Structure prediction request, 155 residues.
Amino acid sequence: AGDLEAQMALFADDAVYTLLPPPPEVPGPLVGKDAIRARREGIATAGAETSTEITGVEGNTVTTLARYADDDLRGMGLEYIEGVEEYVIEDGLITSYTWTMTDESLAAMMAAMPPETMPESGEAAFPTFAMLMARGGLTVSAGFGLTLLRRRSFQ
Prediction:
């Protein structure tokens, strides 16, 4: 709970949290700290490992490349998945967070999934564990991004 509280302290009350492609259980952007907290409370990790590299800072926007791995992914034969994260920071708080799975990771995940898990609608399947990447990357890169922005604002 302490980690969740520390993470939530980084978000503005009216922050927008977007996951692309959207998983079935989160079909659109989450708006507000309460909605973001509810989503993040439901995510559990199993052997999770994350790494994040800041790839750009322009104005109040921080972009990162985040790598995520867990036991579920390894069980599918995937070493990790990657996503591009974009944070918009205003007054020291995250006002917008967007996580976009890379095309390569999405293709690898789809290829690793058993055919019976593929939806009949033609839409992309998006397993719950992919959401864990967003949580792990957010935790690490939000801290890096805020630290970098704070350092730049004092120079």
